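Query structure, 290 C-alpha cells:
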C-alpha cells in the first residue's frame, strides 16, 4: 500500500497504475491511510507529516475520481480530506476538494450535504476573497434551499457574519465568531460508527479553524481603521475592553482567539505600529503609516 501507484502520475502505464480505480483497493487503501492518520495524531506533529497525510488522501481521491465512484465511501474520503486540508492550512487543496464535493459529488450520490460542509464552503470563500465577497455570493447563490434553508439559524448566522464584515462592524463580527455563536449548528448525535464520530469531530475543528482565520483577517482590517483614526491609545479598563472587542481578541469573558490584547499590543510595538508615550504610563503613540 505504501508504494501503490498514483492514477494521475502513472496514467495507467505504470504497473499497478490503475489499482486505485478498483473499489476494493480503494477501501483497503482508506484503512491504510486511516492507520497513518491515527499514528500522526499520536506522535509529534510536523509540517512534513501533514503534507504526507494530504498526499495519501489526494492519491485516494484521484482513484475515486478516475473510477467515477459516487457513494457514501467516496463522500467520506472527500469530507475527511477537506477537513484535513483546513486543519493543515492547505487552501489550494481545500479549493480543489470543494470544487468536486459541493454540489457535484453529493448530488451524484443523492446524499444531503451536512451543514458543516456547507459552512466550510462559504467560510472558505469569505476568507479566500477577503475583503471582497464576490465568490462567497456566487457560491451562496448556487446552494438550493434544500441544501441551505434560508430560514435556518445557520443561514442567519453566516449571512449576518458576512454583512458585518462588509460594513466593518467588528464588534458584531467578534460576537458572531465566538465558538458559542455557531457550535449548535455543528452538534450531531453520537453515531455507533467510530469513523463517523471522528469525521464529525474533524468537521467541527475545521469550521473552528476557518472562523479563527476569518477573525484574524477582520482583526488586521480593524487595526488599519483604528490606526488611521487615533493618535493615542490608553490602557484604561474601558478602552481595553472596547479594543479587545474591536480587534477580536480574547478577554476573560470571551472564548475567541487565544491572543490577549496585551500580547497583541506588544506585537504592534515590535512592528513599529505603536510606541509607549514618554512620561505617561499606560499610553501609546500610534505611529502612522508613511
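Result returned for the query:
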Amino acid at each position: 500500500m505504501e508504494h501503490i501507484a498514483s492514477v494521475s502520475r502513472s496514467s495507467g502505464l505504470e504497473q499497478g497504475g490503475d489499482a486505485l480505480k478498483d473499489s476494493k483497493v480503494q477501501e483497503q487503501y482508506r484503512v491504510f491511510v486511516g492507520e497513518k492518520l491515527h499514528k500522526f495524531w499520536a506522535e509529534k506533529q510536523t509540517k512534513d507529516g501533514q503534507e504526507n497525510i494530504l498526499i495519501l488522501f489526494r492519491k485516494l481521491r484521484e482513484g475515486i475520481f478516475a473510477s467515477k465512484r459516487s457513494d457514501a465511501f467516496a463522500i467520506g474520503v472527500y469530507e475527511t480530506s477537506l477537513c484535513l486540508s483546513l486543519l493543515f492550512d492547505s487552501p489550494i487543496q481545500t479549493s480543489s476538494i470543494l470544487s468536486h464535493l459541493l454540489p457535484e459529488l453529493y448530488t451524484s450520490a443523492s446524499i444531503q450535504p451536512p451543514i458543516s460542509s456547507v459552512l466550510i464552503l462559504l467560510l472558505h470563500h469569505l476568507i479566500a476573497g477577503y475583503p471582497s465577497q464576490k465568490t462567497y455570493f456566487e457560491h451562496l447563490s448556487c446552494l438550493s434551499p434544500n441544501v441551505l434553508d434560508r430560514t435556518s439559524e445557520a443561514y442567519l448566522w453566516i449571512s449576518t457574519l458576512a454583512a458585518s464584515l462588509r460594513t466593518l462592524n467588528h464588534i458584531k463580527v467578534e460576537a458572531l465568531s465566538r465558538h458559542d455563536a455557531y457550535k449548535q449548528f455543528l452538534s450531531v448525535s453520537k453515531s455507533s460508527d467510530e469513523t463517523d464520530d471522528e469525521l464529525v469531530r474533524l468537521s467541527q475543528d475545521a469550521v473552528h479553524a476557518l472562523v479563527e482565520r476569518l477573525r484574524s483577517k477582520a482583526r488586521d482590517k480593524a487595526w488599519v481603521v483604528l490606526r488611521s483614526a487615533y493618535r493615542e491609545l490608553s490602557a484604561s479598563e474601558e478602552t481595553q475592553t472596547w479594543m479587545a472587542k474591536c480587534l477580536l481578541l480574547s478577554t476573560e469573558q470571551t472564548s475567541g482567539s487565544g491572543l490577549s490584547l496585551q500580547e497583541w499590543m506588544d506585537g504592534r510595538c515590535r512592528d513599529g505600529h505603536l510606541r509607549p508615550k514618554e512620561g505617561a504610563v499606560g499610553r501609546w503613540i500610534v505611529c502612522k503609516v508613511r
